[in-house]
Amino acid sequence: MDYRVENGRTYHRYKDGKYNIPNDEKEIERLGESQRDPFPSRFMCLICEPDLQHTLFLLTFSDKLGMAPPCDKGACAGHVLDIGTGTGIWAIDFGDEHPEAEVCYYTRDPNIMLMRDSLPPNVRFEIADFEEPWSFGRHFDYIHSRMMNSSVGDWNEYIRTCHE
Questions:
Q1: What is the pLDDT of residue 96?
Q2: Torsion of the alpha carbons at 45, 51, 53 and 56, rounded to the nearest 10
Q3: Residue 56: per-residue pLDDT
Q4: Taking a C-beta distance cutoff of 8 angstroms, is the pair 80, 96 a contact?
Q5: Model pLDDT, residue 55
Q6: What InterPro entries does the record tag this protein with (predicted)?
Q7: Is the dihedral of CA 71, 58, 116, 24 positive or negative?
């Protein structure tokens, strides 16, 4: 992998400068991916949960992966695209809950691929820029993204592309 180092932090070079968040060990720890549970109380365990952001969403949504109908248990989700939601844990959990679905996780960060030993058979990760033309040969039944505030340059175009 080709990286750029700035102020002691590592950034990926894919579309250099477009994604402004580091992809080093410090960032992975911030996301909660490498943290483990050294505390006895439930509240303190929360701050050390693997993938903290994902865990906070699960707590907010009563252990549901989202509020849209495809996230309901037993829903037939079909083709699902997860765009830029961090470590890919949402796509993995969705694939586990919906084994009939084909789930694709779309990310700009090649390090995400290195963090995963294995994926459910119905989940795949792709490294690409979601703001470039999409190369999928089909439409998606459900597109999920969150925490994209500083990642999208043109929201109208992003929503139009998702809708098409």
A1: 93
A2: -40
A3: 86
A4: no
A5: 85
A6: SAM-dependent_MTases_sf
A7: positive
> What tokens were used for 137?
């040969």
Nearest in space to 79 (alpha carbons), one of 125, 134, 122: 122
Nearest to 84 by CA among 134, 13, 19: 19
Q: What is the CA radius of gyration of the chain?
A: 16
Please, what are the domains in the chain? 3-163 (3.40.50)
**Token pair of 105 as six digits:** 């996780």
Judge contact between 82 and 91, C-beta under 8 A: yes
> Quick check: 3 pLDDT over 50?
yes
- Which of 40-44, 120-124, 131-135 shows the highest mean pLDDT? 120-124
At residue 103, φ and ψ (nearest 5 deg) are: -115, 130
Measured between alpha carbons, how far is 8 from 137 in angstroms, rounded to an integer? 40
Nearest C-alpha neighbor of 98 from the set 62, 125, 64:
64
The answer to whether 147 touches 52, Cβ cutoff 8 Å, is: no
Structure tokens at 108: 């700009």
